Structures are given as C-alpha cells and as structure tokens.
Amino acid sequence: MKSGARVLGVAESFRGERSPGEPSTLAGALVRADRVVDGLAFGSLTIGGEDATDAVVALFLELDRADVQYVLLSGIAPAWYNLLDLPALADALDRPVCAVSFERSPGLEGPLREAFSGAELDRHLAVYERQPARERIEIGEGEFFWRGVGLDAAEARELLFATATDGGRPEPLRVARLAARAADRFREDL
Fold first, then answer.
1. Is the Cβ–Cβ distance between 28 and 10 less than 8 Å?
2. Residue 112 belongs to domain with CATH number
3. CA dihedral 135, 137, 142, 145 (to 10 degrees)
C-alpha cells in the first residue's frame, strides 16, 4: 500500500448508563498509510437502533473527501447491536469496506436473540445474515477477524498490515476510537 493511501477508520463510543434509543458518538478518522491523520468527522447513531449504516454514510459525506480509498470499521455491531450492513455501505460509498474485530467470537446470533424479540429481532437477524463471513488474519503478534465487501483476503491483509503497528489496533481505528471517546466526553459535559 502506498504511503499516501487514505483509510477512513470509523469507531463509536458511549459511556455510562445510556439506554436503547439514546445517541452514541460516532467518529471517523482519515489516516494515511504512513499514519498521518488527515481529517476527522463526527456523527451520531442510536443505541440499539437500526441507523448505523446511514450514520456511517452521513459521516463519510460530511468528511467530503474523494481520496478515501478504504473504509475500515471497528466491528459490525456498534452501539449495542446497531448493525452495520457492509454490502449496503460498500454500495453507498463506492469504496471497499472492511470491518475488524479483535477477539474470537461464536457470532452475534445468540446475543441478538437475547437482546431483541419479535419484528425487531427479525430485522436485526436479516441484516446480520447478509454480512460476509468473518475470517482470521495474523499480523505480527496480533490476530484480527475481518469481514469485508470490495476486497479479498490478500487485500484485507495488506490493508491491516499497512495500518497496524506490530499487530496492534490499526491506526485509523485507534485514532477514530480516541476521537469518539473525546467527543463523547465533550457531549456529556455540555
């Protein structure tokens, strides 16, 4: 990956005792492959809601940068299972989309069934079932679990290798998470 390639990392943060239906903070960090931060954008999504995909699209549009080459997401279930629809997101953004998690997991079907019921559960399961399968990638000492649209395993490995330091969290996601936490604290203090 060229040093000037730009990756939009997206992460969310909520603190405290927030309840379903309340807002959570979303942050996007545009980071070059050489780890230089090149832009930030902020938005909101609903805890336990169904607006995560639209929130990421709005964040991308707010950033207004045609030079974004990849969108890197911190998982597919931000804000208490407000699921991201990767195929819909890749289609809306016309960019490869890669969601990364850092822990082994049997999947989200069980937790979704515990958290939701009825039509709400059906909608969440329908989004979850549309997502590509999760795959494991080792980078240095670290292991990542990724799923994506618009890129294959070799390209995902190159993306993660170029943006992660010694197997740690990829820099676009690390910066986005820091920004989301700071914005969330700011929002809470208002």
1. yes
2. 3.30.2170.10
3. -20
Q: What's the pLDDT tens digit per position in 18-52?
A: 789 999 999 999 999 889 999 999 999 999 999 99
pLDDT at 167 over 80: no
Closest CA to 74 of 48, 55, 100: 100
Q: Considering the domain boundaries, does residue 98 fall inside one?
A: yes
Counting the structural domains of the chain, the total is: 1
* Residues contacting 188, CB < 8 A, separation 6+: 15, 16
Residue 81 maps to a domain: yes
According to DSSP, residue 50 is labeled: S
Instruction: Find how far residue 32's CA is from the centre of its chain.
Output: 17
Query: Which has the closest alpha carbon to 139: 172, 116, 166?
Result: 166
